[in-house]
Amino acid sequence: MAQNLKAPAKRDSMTSNTPRPQKFPAGPSMANNCRAGERIAPSKIVDLVSYAIRDIVAAAEEEVKKGKQIDWLNIGDPSAYDFAPPRRILEAAAEALLSGKYTGYAPSGGDPELRRVIAGVEGCGNNEVFVTSGLSEGIDMALRILLDAGDSVLFPNPTYPLYATKADVFGAESIYYECDEKWLPDIDRLRESIKASTKAIVVINPNNPTGAVYPYSVLKEIADLAAEFNLAIIADEVYDHVLFEGVEMHKLKDIAKDVPVFSGNSLSKNFLYPGARVGYMAIHNDDGRGFLNAFMKMCNQRLSINWELQRGAIAAYNGDYTFLKPSIEKLQRRSDILCGKIAEIPGLSVVAPKGALYTFVKVDGYESDGKHDNRPDWNFTYDLLRTEGVLVVPGSAFYKNHPEEIYFRTTLLPDEMTMDRVVGKLEKFMKARHQG
Fold it and tell me: For tag attachment on the chain, is the N or C end more exposed, with fewer CB atoms within 10 Å?
């Protein structure tokens, strides 16, 4: 029997039990918002993100392709030079890795034993310590829980550039408090910088990029200002054991007792292990303000930190810092070479650092021709790179509101032979361009 292939008759829509698609009139919420033909592009927030310390590397890599030898003085990575973390960290991390016990998610706030050990270092409760992916993530989280759009935060001038980028992305205002000729905070100008919208003061001590180490009297005045204006303090003390001979370190957690202190550190500098990406924030004096709960929320949403390296960090903080002595002696010698010889080069001057891994060099008498960049310090940086093969970081990445002044940051990590070579190149460069 032949099959009936005729299509079934249409049923009246009023009697059909099958729902029919509804048609809506085109309007601003539908057709007019389809953006047909538009290119998908990154968000405008990305335009606020910059990190000159690494951004400048692209230009150096182009010079390498041309066959030029580069002296890399742009980044504070001890492992790129003749420095290494203590064996106890590596062995503990390797043991944890091979044990197979730490292959899952670690607790969001950090390994409980590591939090306990750090709490002993910080003099606080275990629940007041949060393990982060390096101090960089801790900075991000601290600013996130402190700042709403429209708030303001105070940074030292010069400052580590990561801070300002974070504040910009959050829609907060960055205010830079000035320092004196020794790069110590000017307390009167700090007071003048505080606004009704200000929520926090950031203190970087020892300072990156200047290498300044703040005396107790300056830190006490900062703590008193924070108490007077009810401001939190973010204490970036990631270099607190990288101190040169005769220099004393004072920690803000021991000075500021009336305001929240976010005390940050990591394995990166004190333990010469930036690749571990294990840091922490300890929150002192929360006193029911809610910062502990807020920080844990930030930790929960990023899940956890590499557990094996956290086990290495336990070994780090359970030990002492005697392993650092030879490294600090090398840094001191290299600082002496660099600063001593810079003082003899016309147009260059520097305040010798008291700690950390850097010098911040002032340039006078360099007339920027704008050939490489319309910013004078960036033009200087590109000119030095392409002429002499020396890579430094332009000072305006750190030093804000002084666009006509030229500074650059160098690291102290390269060996003595490299330092001698770099100083020779700087002398040659400045002799050819100094307009003094």
Answer: N
What pLDDT, on the 0 to 100 scale, is given for residue 194? 98
Please give the span between the terminal C-alpha atoms of the chain, in angstroms, as a whole number.
108
Three-state DSSP at 8 gives: coil
Closest listed residue to residue 50, CA positions, set 301, 270, 378: 378
Domains of the chain: 47-76+324-433 (3.90.1150.10), 87-319 (3.40.640.10)
Determine contact, residues 131/305, Cβ cutoff 8 Å: yes
Angle formed by the axes of helices 307-318 and 112-122, nearest 10° = 30
Q: Two tokens at 323? A: 């392993």
82: CB partners within 8 A, 6+ apart: 330, 415
Judging by beta carbons within 10 Å of its beta carbon (0-12, 13-18, 19+), is residue 247 exposed, middle or buried?
middle
* pLDDT tier at 32, thresholds 50, 70, 90: low
* Residue ranges in 152-272 assigned as alpha helix (H): 161-169, 187-193, 216-229
Q: Which of 179, 134, 402, 373 is nearest to 270 (CA)?
A: 134
Q: Burial level of 6, CB count in 10 A (0-12/13-18/19+)? A: exposed
Distances (CA, A) of 228 to 24, 36, 145, 191: 59, 55, 21, 10
Reported as a single tens digit per residue, the pLDDT across 247-261 is: 999 999 999 999 999
pTM here is 0.87
Measured between alpha carbons, how far is 222 from 206 in angstroms, rounded to an integer?
15
Across the range 285-306, mean pLDDT stands at 96
Pairing of strands 152-157, 173-178: parallel
* Dist. CA 233–CA 373, nearest whole Å: 36
Mean pLDDT taken over the chain: 90
Are 400 and 156 in contact, with CB atoms under 8 Å apart? no
CB 75 within 8 A of CB 53: yes
